[in-house]
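[READ THE FOLD]
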Amino acid sequence: MKSEIITMGSINQDVFVNINDFPEYGETLWANSISSQPGGKGANQAITLAKLSNNVTFISAIGNDNYGEKVLEFIKLSGVEIQNITIKEEIGTGLFIVILDKNGENTMIGTLGANNHLSVKDVKKGFKNTKATYFLLQLETSISSIKTALQICDKKGIKVVLDPAPVDGIKEDFIQYADIITPNQKEAQVISGIKVKDTCSAKKAAKIIHEKGANTVILKLGNKGSLIYDNNNFTFVDAYNVKTINTVGAGDVFVAALTSYISSENNIVESVMYATAAAAIKVSKLETQKSIPTHDEIVEFRNNYNLKNKNGPSF
């Protein structure tokens, strides 16, 4: 068992609608299938940390309903401690509709439910006895819970890995607490004001985000790989060439695997390479949380697959 990692985030019930192509406005389409799976960025990240043999403290909230009962059981079976998951009596569990096309790309509509009612008291309780040196955070809980967690980390000297998603929840002062921030292209554009469309714009966006307070910026470029800006140096990490089936949760697996690996005193480039492999495994499978890989699966994957890009991303 590795050392403790503390994380905070959402728990949702996801309803997947599989279609060939996204509908036009006003269009009616037949779905190929509709199914339900446990989800939520926080749960995805916590389960990834647990499957990579970390001791996980997970701060979250669910409603007192059937959805909450089911997702809580799955989280528990995945090896995540549940004592800091609060049940909100008057609020429903978060619920998202995920529309997935033939290329594995997704769009979502949902409600945060109980996630948006995670309180300052809940957060303080979760951090009370922690010995964690790393905190993994995303933005699908209440603003007050996020601010409280970041302030506690600052006081305790806990390093913060910030996944700025969904980007609508980002506040300028959050970035100043981030030891590592991991935006995708759209998130980087919102934060930096730069549309990431080529290598030059990616570097410019990463540098602006660093200037806003984040120590290390990892700009996720999807199937093009990642750009790291650390200690005034840029490094590209290539993508893997895999068939994409379901992109839901890939970013969550990436950032959790990154946090797990770097918490064991690995360097940032090697940690991003490890995270890239973990995300590639995830997107090549249909289910979300059940497709999260173990450390042994990641090692085997890296030993048997070739990287897609050799000289940085080609936009």
Summary: The chain has a mean pLDDT of 94.
